[in-house]
What does this fold into?
Amino acid sequence: MDKKKAVPKHSPNKKTLKNMLTNNQHIIIINELRGNNQGVTSLTFRFKFSIIDPPARISELKAKGYKFQTTYGIELDLLDQPHDRVARYFLLSEPVGVAA
It folds into this structure.
């Protein structure tokens, strides 16, 4: 007898869930950088917003037409430990008619 697992129709598959999480991270990044002249560091995105790979999310947003400036410098983490070459992102422009 062939038994199949019942999967509820409302249950998102892994790919859909990953896309939802990625889109939420895009929204967080854009909202944090919009109108922010100080920029936001990759450490802040990692530790405050649990965005594990900020460079990948920035790259995806660039592919959608968002323009960023990235600077690099020494930044302190939450434990005041210095880290070299930490990215600080600035949003320069947004594409017209495209949502994060």
Summary: The two ends are 48 Å apart (CA to CA).
